[in-house]
Amino acid sequence: MGPAALFVVLAAAAWQLMAVLVDSVLVPGVGDVAGELVGIVVDGSFAQHLGITVLRVALGFALAFVVAVAAGIAMGRNEFVRRFGEPAVLLGLTIPGLVWALLCVIWFGVGLANPVIAVALSSAPALALTIYQGVRSVDPDLLEMAHVYRFSRTTRLRRLWLPALAPSLFAGARLGLSLGWKVIVLVEVFGMSSGVGYQLNNAFAEQNVAAVLAWTLLFAVVMAVLEYGVLQGLERRAGRWRKAVIV
């Protein structure tokens, strides 16, 4: 049994023990949560509402990624841009996701712009900061070599910047996506009539703790699939050149 699977088993056992000791409807057992989870998947509501939430997160993160990459590289390469953009990044990092969710609900109503912009605003500062730090960590000798040999912009991008910034891009993507997932739930709770957050709000209104936990677990499974099935695979592909150099 792998460490991750062992953690899941121990967490489930600990929760079941707590449910037995507390003996309250507010702390449902593992069986009750599993029953709700199966029901959500079988009746199709999970796929329907998850698809809506994933689309909103994807659009918001794509917007944040484009803006943050441009801003992070500019801040790392130009001192004036760094000093100009630094307050905005720090301010964005300190504002809670709840504030972005509330403001976007007020400003944009229940349309698609609401969750997309909320996710972008919450994700972009952390992503820009990691990219800025990645740009600053690039070896100056490599930059000088590229200048001496007059590499084209395309060659510099493919052979220098992308390999050098890959760790920062993936670290920023993980952080940005985690923040985006948290904010999208808040937005859907406060101002949307669909999505995982909306379903969580319905379960809360009914005081159905098992359903709240079931939706939360399914949400966590999606994040795990995204991490282990997508990000880590892309990161290994992007880092193959490092292993080749070591060999």
Automatic annotation (TrEMBL):
Single GO BP term: transmembrane transport
Top-level taxon: Bacteria
Signal peptide region: none
Topology term for the membrane: Multi-pass membrane protein
Keywords tagged on the record: Cell membrane, Membrane, Transmembrane, Transmembrane helix, Transport
Family named by the database record: Belongs to the binding-protein-dependent transport system permease family.
Name assigned to this protein: NitT/TauT family transport system permease protein
Organism, as annotated: Pseudonocardia ammonioxydans
